[in-house]
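We append the chain.
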Amino acid sequence: MEKPRQGFWGLWNISFGFFGIQVGFALQNANMSRVFQTLGASMDDLPALWVAAPLTGLIVQPIIGHLSDRTWNRLGRRRPYFLTGAIMAAIALFLMPLAPTIAAPLVFAAAMLWVLDASLNISMEPFRAFVGDMLRTDQHAAGYAVQTAFIGAGAVLGSIFPWLLEHLGVDNVAPEGALPNTVRYAFWFGAVAILVAVVWTVFTTREYSPEEQAAFSGHVAADDDGEIIARLAAKKPLGGIAWIVAGVIVALAVDLLGLQKEVLLLGALLAIYGVLDIVAIRMARRGTKPNMLSSIVGDFSGMPPVMKRLALVQFFSWSALFIMWINTTPVVTQYVFGSTDTASAAYNEGANWVNVLFTVYNGVAAVAALVLLPWLSRRFGPVRTHSICLTLGALGFLGFFFLRDANALIVCEIGIGIAWASILAMPYAILASNLPQAKLGIYMGLFNIFIVVPQLLVATVMGSIMLAFFPGEPVWTMLFAAAAWAVAALAMTRVSAAIPARTA
């Protein structure tokens, strides 16, 4: 038995919630550096303040993936998590603009970023698996393309909203230490947008029950919990010990090499995973029943080959994206608009231009997902399509390094937008057709590790590199971003060899 084929409105309803989620992400990505700098953070403080975002994704997504694979109640399998995350994100978006009125505004803003990113991840992670749950294999590419179009459209609205408010007469400049009304109102609008969009998907879709999913044909078989326990029991703890040693080496390198203290977080995460790996092995050898830890550790160590090779691509792809989100505002305001004074009209004009630039790349992504990517995929296949798009994005980052004209940067954003569309669609379409249906949640959550880890590296190591070699010159980060996407494009050549000749 095959799943029913979804028409236009079916595809629309399945992914519309992502529109609201991406409004929230866009407001976060385009405005949080501005918020932090306005509240007194220096350029060197930004990576540490941003570290909350990837860290929450690293923790939240595998857990939510595991839980959603095993959830079934009146709301369904994935929808309970959509709704919970949307409510929490709306609260964080509402409270964020109140930071200047709090006794410790910078700490409060960082805490709200943590809550916001965790909440958006709670909503976002099940949406990735939701497309695979609801669609037959031959509609996976179309489903993720529609999802990407909504991501682009939501990001366009979230990115452009402060700029639109300014042109409607809302104040874009505020006293020192206060947020402009354009930013405040944009965050409150985002709170409403995410609730409305997610509620739409929750109430216009019906998830297939576990029994219905089991009856559908054409899905890759999943390892059962017993096989995972047996695989863990057969493992040696040397791998966990190696992770712990790596964490200790990273921690020692902080003092030896004079790295920023945020790098300690990376060392701690490596050591913690090593400990969890050893604990999971011991529990398996004792005959402990399958649990969340054994599932996450076991599935991580037993990833299918195609997922392992795509993980390398994701690592370099998201390194560049996080560099862009942190540094575009400082680069544009300093090099194009000539100001680092957050209370100046020039700085705020440049910060709003960043919203326009982010609107362009997200708008391009929305169009490319529906028009360009399907054409390229039919002509060259999904693997070569992704490689081509990443190359175009790398050229866009090079433009930021060399160009000093605000309008010329729009051309750069076209290449970045095409690459962004492909990053959001192609890897997930490939995975959804080659992973066990019953484990889409946990595998999509684990795949997020290779989105989060590079962001943590950027948030910790990049600050040390810039401080040591390019102090006060954030434009060099764009060269790092270009190199990262060039490496990702080359890494895609290894992916095709891991895709089975016959997919389910």
